[in-house]
Each structure stands twice: as structure tokens, then as C-alpha cells.
Specification:
56% strand; 3 helices; 15-stranded mixed β-sheet
């Protein structure tokens, strides 16, 4: 019996698996930044495949875009295209990736991480990410639509109308303080858990429903606090001018009193 045969087999296999204990190869990175003048009520469309999209609202009629491209080879890094089309009333940001490899153990097609600062009263008619993380922070526009296929979606201190959808992963709606104004949140998740963090002085109409899961709320009766219900339709506070609707297909929903 040739005892060296298994070793001869393992050596090329180890080479394929990133050196079998050698340091993990780090991706190459390319950063671009640019500012644009836009209207305060401009309409935004943003599309990305893999990576992240972070949106921050501010008071200026200006947009800042930082795009961080990452890939494991210079060739693939250069093939990732970030296309920004800007008019005063509309903005389109699209990401184009090279075709993914159909062989091998690793996906090295690359990622793009966006940090985008926009007027807080702007409209986001379309935000789409296939895999990764979405953050929407401090928006107050009439309409914000965000769709995530796989990953986590966070909406933070947004007092405008939100339409959020996640296929698989997690969804969090977070308020550090509360403003008594009219706005609405519609959040849907197919597979995964959803949470809303709201302060104790919040007033809103809450509708929460899950098909296969449980709902728990710090603002409810004991049964609701214990997570023994699958649907809630109630008014919290005394001046409910806003609506929060959260629906899950396969997952739990939690309403947390954030600063109790």
C-alpha cells in the first residue's frame, strides 16, 4: 500500500482551500466620493447586488455618495461599475457586477458598500439590495420604499412614510425619541424576525400580524407581553397620529419600549 497517496491528494486540495491554514486573502478596495446639488424633494432610485446601502437624511439640498468597491482581483474590481445619474429632481444609482463564477468554492464577484447622504425630505421611490445590509436614517419624506432579499434592514429615527420589505433575514424599526406628527410605517418580512423599538411616550396605531410565529409587546396586556398572540390591532398612547404596521410570514414580532 502506498501511504503517500492520501498526502499527494490533500496537498492540492489544501492549496485550493486558501492555503490550508495560511492567512486569509484580503479583498482589494477602491473608494470613490462625490457631491451633487439636488432638490430637497428629489426622487431617488438605488440598486445594488451585494454589499450594503446606508442612507442618511440631512437639511442641505445636496447629495454625497461614497462607494466602496471590494473584490479579490484587480480585474474583477475594475469590472464592477457604479453608475450615478443626477438631475436636480431625480437621482439614479445602479451597480453592475461581472458575471458570477459557476465553478469553484468561493464567490469572488465582489461587493459595493454605499454611504449616501440625501435631503431628509427627499423621496426614495426604489431602493433594492439583493444581499447585505440596509440602513435608512433620519428621513422625513413622504415616501421611502426599500426592498432587501437577504440580510438585515434597519430604519432609524425616520418620521416619514416607510415601506419596508425583507424576504429573508431581520428587520428593525428604531426610534430614539418620538415626534407627534402624522407618518406611517409598513414593514413586511417573509422569513425572519421583526422588531420595533419605540420610546415610552410614543403614540401610534399598532397593527402586527404573523402567520407562523408569535408577537410580544411591552405596551400590551400580560398575554401580549408574554408573546402568546399572533395578531395585535391597538392604539398606544393618547394622540395616535401615526401608524405602524408589521407583518411576518415565518417569524416573530417584538415591540420594545426602548427607554423604560
Amino acid at each position: 500500500m502506498n501511504n503517500g497517496a492520501p498526502l499527494r491528494f490533500l496537498l492540492p486540495l489544501c492549496a485550493l482551500l486558501s492555503g490550508c491554514g495560511e492567512s486569509v486573502e484580503q479583498p482589494l478596495e477602491q473608494v470613490s466620493e462625490k457631491s451633487y446639488a439636488v432638490n430637497r424633494d428629489a426622487n431617488f432610485s438605488i440598486k445594488n447586488g451585494d454589499g450594503s446601502i446606508r442612507i442618511y437624511g440631512w437639511d442641505k439640498p445636496e447629495m454625497k455618495v461614497q462607494a466602496i468597491k471590494k473584490a479579490y482581483s484587480g480585474e474583477r474590481l475594475n469590472k464592477i461599475a457604479v453608475n450615478v445619474s443626477v438631475r436636480p429632481g431625480s437621482v439614479s444609482i445602479e451597480t453592475h457586477f461581472p458575471p458570477k463564477q459557476t465553478w469553484g468554492l468561493f464567490d469572488r464577484s465582489g461587493t459595493v458598500d454605499y454611504i449616501i447622504v440625501v435631503p431628509k425630505t427627499a423621496k426614495i421611490s426604489h431602493l433594492e439590495l439583493a444581499n447585505g445590509e440596509v440602513l435608512i436614517d433620519s428621513m422625513r419624506g413622504e415616501d421611502v420604499h426599500a426592498n432587501l432579499t437577504n440580510g438585515r434592514l434597519f430604519a432609524h429615527n425616520c418620521f416619514g412614510d416607510l415601506h419596508l420589505a425583507v424576504i429573508s433575514g431581520g428587520l428593525d424599526v428604531i426610534y430614539d425619541w418620538w415626534e407627534q406628527r402624522r407618518f406611517s410605517v409598513e414593514a413586511d418580512i417573509v422569513s425572519g424576525n421583526a422588531r420595533a423599538f419605540v420610546p415610552s411616550d410614543a403614540s401610534f396605531h399598532l397593527v402586527a400580524e404573523t402567520r407562523n410565529g408569535r408577537i410580544a409587546t411591552d405596551f400590551g396586556v400580560q398575554k401580549e407581553r408574554n408573546g402568546e398572540v399572533t395578531k395585535i390591532d391597538t392604539v398606544i398612547g393618547t394622540a395616535a397620529g401615526s401608524d405602524i404596521k408589521i407583518r411576518a410570514t415565518d417569524g416573530n414580532i417584538k415591540i420594545v419600549e426602548a427607554n423604560r
